[in-house]
Amino acid sequence: MLHKDVDSVLISQEKLEKIVKSLAKQIEKDYNDKEFMMIGLLKGSVVFMADLMKKINLDFPIDFIVASSYGSGTESSGRVKIVSDLTLPVTGKDVLIVEDIVDSGNTLNFVMNYLMTKGSNSVRICTLCDKPDRRKVPITVDYCGTEIPDEFIVGYGLDYDEKYRNLPYIGILKRSVYE
Ligand code: IMP
Ligand code: MG
């Protein structure tokens, strides 16, 4: 049943499964002969990454970074900081960042630079959703699940004010919740 704060379903569970499977296949092919490391940006990527990694039939370590640019609103503040850092070294590693959604690009721009200064060999981005119309900083997305319109979405890891992450689908949040 649809959550009372959700206006409509944008990506159903079935569609999400298809998207994740297709991304996993591409990643498996590209990283087949590489020693790569998967780094999730918490907390939004947690559901997506859990599903994605299960479908990639290679050996690879995972790690997480918590970066924050949002307050409790729906707009990026533009000031990104690392709230919780990596536990593994990334020096010389081919890194694949897993993100829930790219919006302004501020978060990924910061995190990519951060990983490069830590000595990664390469940094690529895998995002479930992309809102290209909202970009303020140019970002190359290497693996994109789906482009979405400029709406505020929740579910499958994505939150508004720390809620709705547990919804099994991605839905458009009712404007009355945040306006
Ligand atoms: P950026 O730094 O503006 O690209 O913002 C990226 C981060 O903002 C994502 O990791 C999400 O946590 C959050 N975000 C952006 N758009 C949405 C949305 O529609 N729903 C939920 N979170 C979002
Ligand atoms: Mg968030």
Describe what this molecule looks like in 3D.
The longest helix is centred in the first third of the chain and has 18 residues, at 13-30. It contains four helices and nine strands; from the N terminus they run E-H-E-H-E-E-E-H-E-E-E-E-H. It has a single domain (13-151), classed as Rossmann fold, CATH 3.40.50. With 179 residues, the chain is α/β, with parallel strands linked by helices. The chain is 24% helix and 34% strand. A hairpin with a 5-residue loop joins strand 3 (62-70) and strand 4. Bound molecules: inosinic acid and magnesium ion. Residues 44, 70, 159 line the site of magnesium ion. Magnesium ion binds next to loops.
Strand and helix order: EHEHEEEHEEEEH
Q: What's the structural domain tally? A: 1
Whole-angstrom Rg: 16 Å
Low-confidence stretches: none
Q: Which class best fits the helix and strand makeup?
A: alpha/beta
The counted number of beta strands is 9
Distance between the termini: 24 Å
Principal-axes geometry comes out as globular
Main sheet strand line-up: 4-3-2-5-6-7
Q: Quick one: CATH class?
A: Alpha Beta
Q: Overall mean pLDDT score?
A: 95
What proportion of the residues form beta strands (DSSP E)?
Answer: 25-35%
Give the name of the CATH architecture.
3-Layer(aba) Sandwich
Number of helices: 4
* Sheet with most strands: 6 strands, mixed
The fold-level CATH name is: Rossmann fold
* Heterogens: inosinic acid, magnesium ion
Helix content: 10-25%
